[in-house]
Structures are given as structure tokens and as C-alpha cells.
């Protein structure tokens, strides 16, 4: 039997069929060994190709464990011109098994490098979490402070669009982060200004739908093709 791990990695689990004195195969012993091999494969992350497995082929366990704190606090804030809800959040994405988090609202005081929002301030900073070392590292700042933005990973780059820097402004702009160069570059503006939108990457393109605009809740959507 052979179980394959996603990511083009494989490991052979060999089951030898032992024969008795008469040359017959002990099927019960073989089945027992196969069952044990399958259990080991699932624990190690091999053979996971369907439900219950993470994106890297590892089986998800129903438990939580703490990780290192972020370099700064990034929290949601219930101050909105168009929405009666709490939720001005940072946004994030995963590239090469590392988590990138940007924007959001920092609590307490003020910061001259960021936009002021109520009792806190909107951040333009970002950071990267490496689960192998359990450490966060700072990355380059975005061009503008953003919270309630949406994002996606396209071709190994982290794309962030929309959001808001304060209670009166909504962005149509977006920018793209390249982890190889630690730099942001602008992308084309959306035709509609959006915050609190939902996004996903479909066929290598970032699709953004819904959210809140300057006049209220949106049902429209847009798709960005970087080409």
C-alpha cells in the first residue's frame, strides 16, 4: 500500500503478506497491519486527500494551542458610518506556510504614522508569523492605513484591497505585497469603494463581493486579473 502526502511528497507503507507452512496468506494479520498503517499515515499527515485535512495534507485535530503574541495589538472597532456592527479588523493571508497580517485598529492613544479612529488608530503596518519558529517578524508598511479591508494570495503575492482609514472614508484602492522583495506596489482601483467585503481567489484571480460602500450595503462584485 502507498499513501501520498500532498505537496508531491510520498511515503511507501509496505505490507508484507506472510505465508504459513502451507503457503497460505494470513489475511487477518494482513488486514490488521493495513489498519495500523492507515492510522499511522493519518497521524503523520499521509494519505490525506479529502475532508478533515488541512491545505498541506495534515489532519486537523480538534484542539487549540497558543502561539506567540503579535508584535502589536490589532483589534476590531465598532465605529462605522454605514454599518451598525463591530468589526474593523486586520486582514491576512498565507504564503509558503507563513501567515501575513496587516492593518486593523491599534488600541489606546494615537500614532502619527497611522489614521486616528475613535479611541484607537488604524494601522498600515504588517507582520509575518512563521509556525516553525513560533515568531512574528515585521514586514514593510502598506502605502495607507487600512482596516476592514479584504485580501487574497495570488501567484505567491498578498493582495489587499478596499477598507477604511476612518469613519468617513472608504477605499477603492488596493496594493500587492511581494514577500521576496518585502515591498508593496499599487494595483488598479476597484470601480466601487468597499469595506467589510468578502473575497476569494478563483482560478488565480481575486474576486471581491459585497461589503459596504459610500451609500450603503453592496451586492455587487468585481474580479481582478493581474495578467
Outline:
By secondary structure, the protein is mainly β. The protein has one helix at residues 27-44, and strands at 2-5, 9-12, 91-95, 98-102, 105-107, 115-117, 120-122, 126-130, 135-139, 150-154, 157-161, 174-178, 183-187, 198-202, 205-209, 221-224.
CATH architecture verdict of the largest domain: 6 Propeller
Strand arrangement, major sheet:
3-4-8-9
What's the CATH class of the largest domain, please?
Answer: Mainly Beta
How would you classify the helix and strand content by structural class?
A: mainly beta
Q: What is the overall shape?
A: elongated
Biggest pleated sheet: 4 strands, antiparallel
Count helical runs.
1
Number of strands: 16
Q: What series of H and E elements makes up the topology?
A: EEHEEEEEEEEEEEEEE
Strand content: 25-35%
- Please report the distance between the alpha carbons of the first and last residues: 43 Å
Integer count of domains: 2
Overall mean pLDDT: 76
- Assembly type: single chain
pLDDT < 50 stretches? 1-17, 44-55, 77-87
From the 3D structure, determine the CATH topology of the largest domain: Neuraminidase
Q: Give the fraction of residues assigned to helices.
A: under 10%
CATH superfamily of the largest domain: Kelch-type beta propeller
Spatial extent as radius of gyration: 24 Å
Report on the structure:
By secondary structure, the chain is mainly beta. The protein folds into two domains: 1-63, no CATH class; 91-224, 6 Propeller (Neuraminidase), CATH 2.120.10.80. Helices cover 8% and strands 31% of the residues. The protein is built from one helix and 16 strands. The protein has a four-stranded antiparallel β-sheet, with no helix packed on it. The model is unreliable at 1-17, 44-55 and 77-87 (pLDDT under 50).
